[in-house]
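Whiteboard transcription, Tuesday session. T.W. wrote the C-alpha cells on the left side:
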C-alpha cells in the first residue's frame, strides 16, 4: 500500500461555543505540539476584512475577532471565528492525546470529540485547478478557489 492509498484516521473537536481569538490561540498552541497530527483545519463563520453585502458593502469590517494569533513561533491571521477543528492523524492513539489537551483547555464549557471522516482524501476539481495534477497530498481537500491557500505550520514536534 502506497502512502497516498493509506487511510489515516480523522477526528474533529467541536466546542459548545465559538472560541475567542485568545482561547483559540491557547488551544492551537498546545494541540500542534501533539505528536502524530498530519494536518488540521479550523472551521467557523468567515471574518471578512470588508463588509460583503448590504448598504455598507466594501467598507472596512471592524471585527475584533479577526486578528493575528501566535501558534508556536508562527503568526497566523484568523480568517474565521474558530468553531470546529478537524484533524487527520497518523494513528488512532493520537485521539486520546488530543482529548487530553481538550480536557485541559475546555474547562468552563463542554466540547465534543468525534471520530469519522471529515476531510477529503482524494483530489477534487478545486484542488486540480489550484495546484495542478501533481498536487502535494497534504494540500488535498484544503483548497478554496476563492481564497488564499491554507496556512502551513511546521516544525513544532
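and on the right, the sequence the group agreed on:
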Amino acid at each position: 500500500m502506497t502512502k497516498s492509498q493509506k487511510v489515516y484516521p480523522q477526528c474533529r473537536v467541536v466546542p459548545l461555543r465559538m472560541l475567542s481569538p485568545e482561547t483559540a490561540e491557547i488551544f492551537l498552541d498546545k494541540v500542534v505540539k501533539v505528536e502524530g497530527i498530519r494536518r488540521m483545519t479550523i472551521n467557523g463563520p468567515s471574518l471578512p476584512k470588508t463588509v460583503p453585502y448590504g448598504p455598507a458593502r466594501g467598507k472596512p469590517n471592524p471585527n475584533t475577532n479577526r486578528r493575528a494569533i501566535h501558534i508556536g513561533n508562527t503568526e497566523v491571521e484568523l480568517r474565521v471565528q474558530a468553531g470546529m477543528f478537524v484533524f487527520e492523524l497518523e494513528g488512532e492513539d493520537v485521539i486520546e492525546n488530543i482529548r487530553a489537551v481538550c480536557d485541559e483547555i475546555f474547562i468552563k464549557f463542554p466540547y465534543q470529540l468525534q471520530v469519522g471522516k471529515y476531510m477529503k482524501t482524494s483530489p477534487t476539481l478545486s484542488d486540480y485547478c489550484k495546484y495542478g495534477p501533481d498536487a502535494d497530498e497534504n494540500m488535498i481537500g484544503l483548497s478554496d478557489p476563492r481564497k488564499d491557500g491554507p496556512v502551513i505550520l511546521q516544525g513544532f514536534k
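Someone added at the bottom: The mean pLDDT is 84.
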